[in-house]
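Input:
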Amino acid sequence: MNKLIVSGVWSVVVCGLFVMGGTGCKSDDDELGLLGDDDVLIPMGVDGSGGEYELASRSDTLGDANRVTDVSFENVSFAFDSYQIAGSERGKIERVADYLVGNPQVTVVVDGHGDERGSREYNLSLGEHRALAIRAYLISLGVAGNRVQTRSFGEEQPLDPGHGESAWRMNRRGEFALYQ
Amino acid sequence: MKCTSIYYPLVLAAMLLAGRVALAEDIRIVKSGSGGKISLSLQGMRVGGGHAEKQFYSVLEQDLVRSGWFAIVNKPTSTVQAGGSCTQEGGRLAAACDVRNAQTGKRYVSRVYTETPTRSRELAHTVADAIVEAVKKVSGIASTRIVLIGSKAGKKDLFVCGADGADMVQLTRDGAPCLSPTWSPRGDSLFYTSFHRGFPDIYQVRLATGKRARVVSYPGINAGADVSPDGKSLALALSKDGNPELYVRDLRSGRLTRLTKTRFAAEASPSWSPDGRQIAFVSDSTGSPHIYVVSSSGGKAKRITFRGNENVSPDWGADGRIAYSSRRSGRYHICVLDPKTRIETQMTAEHVDHENPSWAPDGRHIAYTRTQGHSSDVYVLDTLGDAQVRLTQFQGDWYAPSWSPL
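Output:
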């Protein structure tokens, strides 16, 4: 188990697992075609054994018409080459979780982004890893996994088109897009 | 002779490669740059006065130079005498080629090649490749193609051009983010990741029909597709199981085999070994991305790069050497690693970024993305030391080249 508690966010995830009892909170809401939400919190064993889990199926039909625009949330920042959620960033995710708990009809797409350094392919994976870390934290805060999709853009959609440290810092981010 | 730490291994690699291709004994070597070249004369090649014939000649000459194996010396003393004619008759362009060794008299090529006159460039590529193959016993690359991404004002699309950068064709008109195009082993299909339907999915483009189909679209990322040498499987990075991991997908049945289980790391950029038994890939399990190798049927992965702050974008060449991009002193450089000898060679030295290497099927040249002043272009480098050549000469950014098979 030691391996599971290495980073802050994952220890939270593991705690979340115990709180929820791991017994499954399978939702009947199949709007996103969820395949067994109960697996979501089971991390892979250190030796590769352990439970598999599925992402929320994606919906290709999320249109701007369904976009929730009356609230917005701050982007989550990340360090270079890192997917770990810094303590200073947790509050941002907790505010999204509070909103989702209070608005059960809303689903969220978490977009993961990176800065321009490194290969585009690696940055796509890294951006997804970031989005998934945010998703895991949302789930540990009580949001059902079938309400949280992830989408990585890698380095393809920078917020700041510049090329220095400040642009890079702004571009390494997780964004929240909410849909009704 | 003064050797820098960068060029010393380059010379070593040159010697190794020279040993591998086993120079024929009857060939006189002309010293030029860091690689030995064979003198070749085109003096005996008579061409008609039309545009097609003239273009044939100039493209043939450029192709032979680009191959890296020849120094064009139009004298009767040159080792290889490439004679013959190129003429237009009855709506056909005919190149009658007579290529022989001036010292031994050995005949390398004796054949008539024909094309429609509008395809004089292609005809020259065919003849150049025939000469390279007959004289050097290695594959010529003049007729090969390169797929790449062009980006103008943030709009990205797939393009294909010749190995000399000519004949650029735009394949897609999505203006959407797209990544890492690659060829099927037979060269009849391309696979790549595109966002044009909103999410990063893998598409196959069949070049004969121009038809595109979405072939992998799990939740999460679908990226890094690389087709196995037997054409039956796709190695790829997926996050559908909750974390970016490496998989192999059987193209016919769609059956997936998961290769990595790294809860705390992201994987990317698989590249098959030439025998199909292993896959090189990128993982950041140490905290920064480096290159690993795993059996294509699964098992324990082994890290193979230890220099540089980051090592990404592996491309496993047909001769067994792996090209990749390594971040050293703040810049990305193209490196080549021979997994058997563990000799690692840095191929670029300039203080700009060199990324996304892709081997040419001659095992000698590498196409890559060169970024300077935030502007990217595709270049070709020669692992035996000839000067780099810029392929893309247009506005916008050009990157992610992938060299076609033969």
